[in-house]
Amino acid sequence: VMWLAVTLGLSFSLSFSGAAQLSAEFGDTVFALTILLALFLYTFIGGGAPTAGATYIIRNYTRDTHAWVWSDFWEHYKKNFLQGTIIFITDCVFVTIIMINIAFYTRAGAESIVYSILQGVMIIIGLLFLLMHMYVYPLLVTFKLKIRDIYKNSFLLTLASLPRTFLAFFIPLVVCGSLLYGMFGVSPYFILLLPIIYFVLAIYIYLSVSFPVVKKYMIDIPSQKKPPSSADNSPIQ
User: Fold this and answer.
1) 151, pLDDT greater than 90
2) Which of 17-26, 54-63, 122-131, 171-180 has the lowest mean pLDDT?
3) Which of 9, 59, 177, 232 has the least CB density, counted as fewest CB within 10 Å?
4) H or E, element range at 198
């Protein structure tokens, strides 16, 4: 609950204020894309260390492994606080740069096809960066890695399982979009529950998809290749 409150509060305040400024400059399309992007960021970029604590718990649940919700959350919150905070700041800077570039190339695209190509490149880079975050926090709480290695391995794992990662990315969006379409006419207040529904559904689906990939490429295969005495990059929890 605390993680959800911190994540939603910070994300709503930052994303809506930024989206409003972009909307005034570039129009409603960019505003809608910004809100859609923020909806995804609630799940894995969110609060850094709180995200790490919650990822550990839900990762265990997807593996049918027990976890103490309160104590394990705070244990891994503290354990991953520094790296989680650095990842959070890095993500905010990177996403801001991508959004500004997309907005600029969208407006300038009418002047030259080169800008339209650059816009497409920025969208692809931004999408890959979002998909990587299905692996960033599972790697953070499972292995003792440097931040650059977390990003590098997340990128490689995304490419190694791109179809299933891409599909998993859109499932919560499709489900929540369908719910919004079907329920908005019944009760407009349903939209207030949508971020919570998305959050619960998305993080469980993302971890159910991502951790088997992490296990396959970073636990099972290395353990088959390395001698029993080798412990480099072995899971820490």
Assistant:
1) yes
2) 17-26
3) 232
4) helix 194-215
Task: Determine the straight-line distance between the first and last CA of the chain, rounded to whole angstroms.
Answer: 23
For 73, phi then psi, to 5°, come to -60, -50
CA dist list (Å): 150 to 21, 136, 146, 153: 32, 6, 6, 5
Residue found under tokens 């926090």: 137
∠ CA 178-179-180, rounded to 5°: 90
Give the number of residues written for the chain: 237
Q: 10 — phi, psi (to 5°)?
A: -65, -45
Q: Which residues contact 117 (CB under 8 A, 6 or more apart)?
A: none
- DSSP E strands, 6-86: none
Query: Which residues, other chains included, contact 125 with Cβ-Cβ below 8 Å and sequence gap of 6+?
Result: 98
Which positions ≥6 away from 199 have C-beta within 8 Å?
Answer: 4, 7, 8, 42, 43
Number of other residues whose CB lies within 10 A of the CB of residue 103: 22
